[in-house]
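Supplementary Note 2. Why include the ligand at all?

Several targets in our set were suspected to adopt different conformations when bound, so apo predictions alone were not considered sufficient. For every target with a known small-molecule partner we therefore ran a joint prediction. The input for geranylgeranyl diphosphate is given below.
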Amino acid sequence: MRTVQTRIEATLSRLLPPAEAIPARLHQAMRYASLNGGKRVRPLFAFAAGELTGGSPEKLEIVSSAVELIHAYSLVHDDLPCMDNDVLRRGRPTCHVEYDEPTALLVGDSLQSLAFELLARTDLGSESANSARQLEMVRLLAHASGSSGMAGGQAIDLGAVGNVLDQPELELMHALKTGALIRAAVMLGALCGETLSDEARESLDRFAKRAGLLFQVVDDILDCTVSTATLGKTAGKDAVDEKPTYVSLLGLERAREFADELGKQALDSLAIFGERGQRLIELTAFITHRKF
Ligand code: GRG
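The joint prediction is reproduced in token form.
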């Protein structure tokens, strides 16, 4: 894990505009929001899926960075006063607190653009087969980030405050808000190597959907069981903000059981890959038992 985390930190640092390049304040804020923080779970998923298809580390670091930039943008926008209105992220002041709201808005916009610029890089693949694959990657990440993915999930989330959602409604919200980007990370990682059979691809996608939902169920549990100091973001905020979560819907015990069940289902989907799925199995254990 540390190898991938270190590699992503170095790659992001190299690919982000230098802090002194004009407009320096925006570039500094982009680096502030993307570097020195985060578990890098989405890159870990991409690298683990890349092991299934023999993807090169050079390609994997580019697609992983693209996904991580989308994730960083979503956190910056999510923390804004007009959204979740939070002051702490990754143990530091949120981007709009450290800089200002207009800068934070532009940071999110610019990180998103940079993500797609990375996916269009010629060193990701220049032969015609690879160009078709790059287009597929761009489409996949765009779909996962937009109104049918993460942004759509955020819209449902904003509309759900103070309301009671049933389990299918909650699942849809989370599958879009959190799950779509994790699913994209897995599929983009796999696309860095040999083409998977239709059956293997469907199994991997099934795994990614379950792992994405599992990540969110655990996030809901951590929000009400772990301290702000450990999380590096404001704990207990879901309840204060009257957000529907798996804990508010099922209670803590049943939410934990549901997470265990999702973990088992995710691992079942990996059976087809045998030993090559080992890294994804380990990552599933990590997201299930993580403490922050
Ligand atoms: C603003 C379009 C837009 C979308 C925002 C991702 C998101 C949608 C909101 C973040 C709020 C939140 C708590 C989501 C639940 C799970 C989640 C994505 C947690 C943060 O991800 P981690 O734990 O964060 O991977 P680190 O800091 O480790 O990268």
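The chain has 15 helices and two strands. The beta strands are 88-89, 92-93. Comparable summaries for the other entries are listed in the accompanying table.
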